[in-house]
Every structure is written in C-alpha cells, then in structure tokens.
Specification:
Layout: H1 2-29, E1 38-47, E2 53-56, H2 59-75, E3 81-84, E4 90-94, E5 103-107, E6 112-116, H3 119-132, E7 149-157, E8 163-169, H4 177-189, E9 194-198, E10 200-201, E11 204-205, H5 214-217, E12 221-222, E13 244-245, H6 250-262, E14 266-273, H7 278-283, H8 316-332, E15 337-341, H9 348-352, H10 354-362, H11 368-385, E16 389-393, E17 406-409, H12 417-422, E18 427-429, H13 432-435, H14 457-462, H15 472-477, E19 478-485, H16 493-500, H17 503-512, H18 520-536, E20 549-555, E21 558-564, E22 571-575, E23 586-587, E24 593-594, E25 598-606, E26 609-610, E27 615-619, E28 629-630, E29 655-657, E30 663-685, E31 695-701, E32 708-714, H19 717-720, E33 725-747, E34 765-772
Parallel strand pairs: 2-3, 2-4, 4-6, 8-9, 8-19, 9-14, 14-15, 15-16, 16-17, 17-18, 18-19
Antiparallel strand pairs: 1-7, 5-6, 5-7, 10-11, 12-13, 20-21, 21-24, 22-23, 22-25, 25-26, 25-27, 28-30, 29-34, 30-33, 30-34, 31-32, 31-33
Helix pairs in contact: 2-3, 4-6, 8-11
Amino acid sequence: MRKYTLSLLLLLVLPLWAQQTSNRYITQTRSILPCPMQLTSGSGSYVFTSRTTFVVEDEEQANLVRSFISLFTQAAGFTPKLVVNKKGDIRLITDASLKSEAYRLQVTPKNITVKAADAKGFFYALQSIRLLLPAAIERSTVTKGIEWNIPSVQVTDEPRFGYRGLMLDVARFFLPKENVLRIIDCMGMLKINKLHFHLVDDNGWRLQIKKYPRLTEVGAWRVDRTDVPFHSRRNPKAGEPTSIGGFYTQEDIKEIVAYAALRQVEVIPEIEMPAHTNSSLAAYPQLACPVIDHFIGVLPGLGGNNANAIYCAGNDSVFTFLQDVIDEVITLFPSRYIHLGGDEAQKMTWEKCPLCQARIQKEKLPNEEELQGYFMKRVAKYVTEKGKEVMGWDELTNSAMPEGAIIFGWQGMGTAALKGAKLGHRFVMTPARILYLIRYQGPQWFEPLTYFGNNTLKDVYDYEPIQKEWKPEYASLLMGVQASLWTEFCDKPEDVDYLLFPRLAALAEGAWTLPENKNWPRFIQSVDSYNAHLAEKGIVYARSMYNIQHTVTPQSGGLRVQQECIRPDVEIRYTLDGSEPTIASALYEQAPILRSALTMKSATFIEGKQMGQTLVLPLIWNKATAKPIRGGRPYERVLTNGVRGSLKQTDFEWCGWDKSDSISFTLDLEKSENLHTFAIGCITNYGMAVHKPAVIRVELSNNNTDFDTAGELNFTSEEIFCEGTFIDNCTIDLGGKKARYVRVTAKGPGECPENHVRPGQESRVLFDEIMID
C-alpha cells in the first residue's frame, strides 16, 4: 500500500517540480538583454567549474575569453581553462555565413557552442552567457555556495541597427576615468557599441592636447557654484579661484579606448565648435571675436550673454588651432568618426565682428548662418582629408552641410535630421523628447532636480525611430539610435549612474531588437536581472519605475485620484487616514473620488514587499476645490484639483503661460458664495526664468457678464526677479463679497533684466492652486 501511495505522490509532485524548474529556466533565459531574435529553452543546465575548458581558434578569440573567465577568477574563486584548437566544453567556432555582430549560442548540460563571424559576435554571445549567470558573477570578491549554472538554451541573434550609442557628457561634469570604464563595461553587457564622448563644452575642456597645454591648465577648471543648481549659476569673475573640474591625460584616453575596444565599443570623440567653446576661449581668448569686451571664463552654468563667445569665423588662426587639435585627437582615437558639434551657435558677435563680416564678403555668403556652414565645411574638409568621417548635431542642416556629414537628430523628436536625409546624408536619432536621459525618469515628486519633463524607462523603451510618414529611403540612411546623457545636474559620479541606469537598457533593446520581438512585461523581467548585475558592481541604479504617478482631476463635485505605475506587475496599496500603506492596505483597483481634505498615501508592492517610495498626497479643500475653470489652457484642471505643486515646475501640477501678458481665466463656484480671501500659488524658479506676474487682478460676478474688481496685487521688478526656487501664495482680501464667478487676470513681467542669468528671455508665469475662503 505504501508503494502505491509513494508512486501516486511522485506522479503528483514530479510534474509540479518539473513545471517549477521549467518556469525557473524560462525566467532565467529572459535575463538575456536585449531580447534575442530567436530563443528556445531546453531542459537542464550547464554548470561552470574549475574543470570547464574554453576552446578557441586564435588569439583574438582568446583575448575575449580571458576577459570573460576573469569574472570567475574574481567572483567564484576558480579560473576555467583556455586552450587553442583542443578538446573542451565550450567551443568558439567561426561561421563566415553569419553577419558581423551576429551569433548563435547553444547550451546543453554537457557543453556550450558559440558560432560567429567575427570578434563582435563572439563577444556578444559571451555577454548573453554573462547575463544568464547568477548576478554574483560581477563581484570582486570570492563567494562560496553558488552554483554557477546557466539554463539550456538555443539562441540565434543579430542587431537591428549597426549604431547603438550612448553620448556621455564629461564636459559639464568631469567623470573620473574609473567610472567611465565601468560604464563602458555595462554598455558591453547591453551590446551597445558606440560611446559618443562629449569632451568639450563651455563648462570644461577634458582632453589633454600637448601643443596647447592651457586647454587643460585653464579650460578644465571652473569656479565652484555647486551651492545652486546649474541653471541658476552666475558667471565667473576674473581672479576667482577655479577648483572644480579635471581632465583625461592622453595615457588615460589610450586606456579608455583600449578597454572599450575589448568590449566592442567604439569611442567617438566630440570636439565642439564653433559654439559651446568658452573653456577653450578662456585658455586662448585670442580665438574669440575681437569685439568681445567681457571676461571670458569657463562657465559654471548656462552663461547668459557670456555664452555668446564663440570661435571667430574670420580668424584663420582659429582653423590652425582646430587642425592642430584634430591632429592629436586622430592619434588618440582610432574611431572612423569625429563629431564636430555645430549646435546652438549664437551669432551676435559674428554680426558685429569686422573679421567675420570680412569673411562673409570674401566668401560671398548671404548671412551669418551660412558663415557657420562655411566654418563647419572648412573643418570637416580637413577631417575627411585625414581619413575620418564627420558627425554633427542637426543644426548643420540650417546651412550648407559638409559633404557626407552624419547628422544627429536631437531637437524635439529629432526630425531636423530628415532635412539631411532628404539630401542623402546618413543620420542617427537621439531625440531630446525621448532619448535625453537628463530628463526626469519617473514621477517628479521623487526625483532629483533637473530640466524639463519626463523620459521614463517606458518612454525610452516604446520609442520607435522609423515613422510611418518617412520616405522609404530615409530608413536605409538611418544608422541607428543613441541615448544622450547631459550632466548639468550631476555633482558626483553616482548622479551619472542614477540617470543612466536602467534607462540605458531600454535604449539597448530598441537599438538591437526587432519591434515585433519587443514585449514590455518580458523586458521588465530582463531589466530586473540586469539591475541585479549592476547592484553587484556597486552601481546604485534608479528605482523610479516602481514609483507612482498621480493625476487628480475635478469630477462630479469631487476629486478623482488616478494613480499608475509603469511596472505592470505591481499592486498599488493606499490609505486615506494618513497611515503608512502596507500589503494589508486597500488595493487600488479604480480611481476613487474624494470629497474632503485628507492625506492619501500609496505605494507599490510585489509579493508583499514594498518596492517604490511612498507617495504622500495631501488634498486641500476650500470653496474653489473641484470647481470648473473656464480659460482654455492645458492643465487648467490643476488650479482647482486640491493638490499643491512641488518645487519642480514641470511636475504636472502647474498651469503655465509662455506669453505672459495675456493671462485670464474664470472660476465658476456653481452658486453664489460669501468670499473673504483669494489666494493663488505662484512658483519662482530663477534659473528657468519662471517668475511672479507684474499684476494679479481678481474680479467678481454673479452672471459671468458684469464683473467688478475686488482686488489687485502689483509687484516691483525687485520683487519679481528674486533668485532661488520657492512658492508664494499671492493673497487678496475679498471683503466678504458675494459672487458665483471669479475672474483672474494677470500681466506677466516680460523679459528678464540684464543682470538675470537669462537676460532678455521672456519670463513665464505658473500657477498651481486657487484657494478661496
């Protein structure tokens, strides 16, 4: 009887065990990132031990394998063997029928076979194996008790795009060499193959040029303004100490390039011109237009009018200087490309400069825009004569373009690059609206300060560069895609890591994987695996994908509180009594409509564990709350949605006016009320030119036709253009008057004054909440 009971038990348990084991291996195979073209899971697993032997065909393959097995030496405490053309467990076999970068990987419990046509393909196969291994493989110390296994699997893989890039800005924030190397290693794991190295900008020159030592003696250092955000920093004064910065020696660059090459990453240098050059002009001011009458220093921030200092297009010594720089750059970077910048060149000094005007006359150019075209074509010609190809930002399309130049589409959705494509130029898409990693990567209430709006992990993942309206030939000219990380708001290396990871994984999948193979829920599991590897490397990646974005909208006399998370596998739990949410709290299933002041707290959970930060949402309530607004402005719902905005003016809780001299909207209280005080929240963000209006006027009516003025606030220029970031409640006494309609009009303060960090720029007005008692 016991024999039959045991048999029955085995019949019940073994299929369950097999299913759990199969699920574990399926989950493990999903850790390959980016998603392969074809993947088939097998049964069982291959275990790496000290007896494991790699078999290679030549020294090139051996170099790749040595780098890979060093991971076992550090983390596992054993080193797999490496032999050439002998017997072994893991064989690398050249298959000339495969494309460059493609590979085939077959894993069984007994052996592993890797086939590829070149070193790139072999390297990418090894990276897929790396991501299949336990994340502890990234440790620098030996860990006992881990079985170093990978699941049986067959993979056939190749990339969608040849150009899979990351632009890393080390000019605005100097990133130490060791951190650059670690980022390159993380790029290699993701099969990202281009590092666009932004070495030069107004805020620092980071590359040693031996013929011009002052470029790093002077140009690599700036004054310390880190006590205020980048956009609010004032310009340097002559004689101020310059303590912030750094640069890479030529030996550093050689090490970076060699390290990247082993990981199949091509390092593309960018030498910016003719603008974003205050760092080199601080070192050699004779290269600027002679009409500049202010001190030229390395800029700690945006620079205001000082950013107008650019290379003099009429001075031949400028071109001699740039040719000398390019000569040394070519010896350091074996890349086939040099990026020459070409963006955001303000030409006011060229308009006044006699040398530039003489150049325009001599070359028979119609205007200063075409003078930039002349400038870029002249430098580009020198680069191409040296056997290199020229890259540049999409402003190159504003004038005659250098022959063969590759255009980087960045403005908005990057569509300016199509002007180049129309003329047969190749291009790379790196649209600021989606692929600029300086933008917020999650709900802004939780994020460190930066510019503009959101580029979440899912935004980056969902990006499709080839649009339906493109002409067919454009797709053939598209080289690929690039994420661009500008570092204005980075003050330490950890800030760079936070902005890069894990969004770089979403870029990698979009660059490698065919659109039909993309799947957001599967990608999330792959990211979890990749993040585990990052954590073992000591990288603190952003967990923004677990945080909650709220949208509170007046509805049916109450406030509809919508909450969402980009992770599809989380539960949102919430409380309404101010207590901290737990797994036992109410499950968010549909948006509740709330009708009183309270504090809602919410958080995301997976398998009972809180994953994201707690969203604390205080809802205020007054006579204006949940009432309709008639003004026709986007986001005007936030004026009566019971939620105060944060100090981040792009957090979706502020209603704004760019043309600030025509602000007008009407609040309908839906019945006549005795009104005592009116207040409206107004944010000042000095660095972003967001300020109080010059005038706020409140008028009252019972019929929405005849209005009487109830009060008015007037602010002086000194009160308006204060420095800092803060919120004011602008309050008017209504004297207990009875009315149903409240009309608010305001007059913006106009342009920022000359002593502002954004002189001459039209200021903006942002309101968040109307409060009436």
